[in-house]
Design brief:
Layout (H helix, E strand, L loop, with lengths): L1 H15 L22 H13 L3 H13 L6 H20 L5
Helix pairs in contact: 2-3
């Protein structure tokens, strides 16, 4: 259930973020983005994504991120998240580049 919340949050942030001139596939470039290895680091990324949304939804987005407490589960989830990330990059951006 918590993984589903993370994926929904990431999807919403990705779909609604104002990328301006930033190519969303940059997330698949290891020199631009490294998969967070701790829940604290991922929380920072997600909160940054929330800050890129319309002002009316920034705080609700941050509340969702803050309400998820995955400190103990994150080491178990990390391989699954990494596989998801790898497959998404492969399908939509030609793979992870590094």
């Amino acid at each position: 259930m918590k993984l589903l919340l993370i994926l929904i949050c990431v999807f919403i942030v990705h779909m609604n973020a104002q990328f301006e001139n930033i190519d969303p596939c940059n997330i698949c470039n290891d020199s631009w983005f490294l998969m967070p290895t701790t829940w604290e680091k991922l929380t920072r990324y997600l909160r940054f994504g929330c800050n890129r949304l319309d002002k009316s939804v920034i705080q609700p987005c941050r509340d969702v991120v803050d309400s998820m407490n995955l400190h103990s589960q994150y080491p178990t989830l990390l391989p699954k998240i990494t596989e998801f990330y790898t497959q998404m990059c492969k399908k939509y951006c030609g793979g992870v580049k590094g």
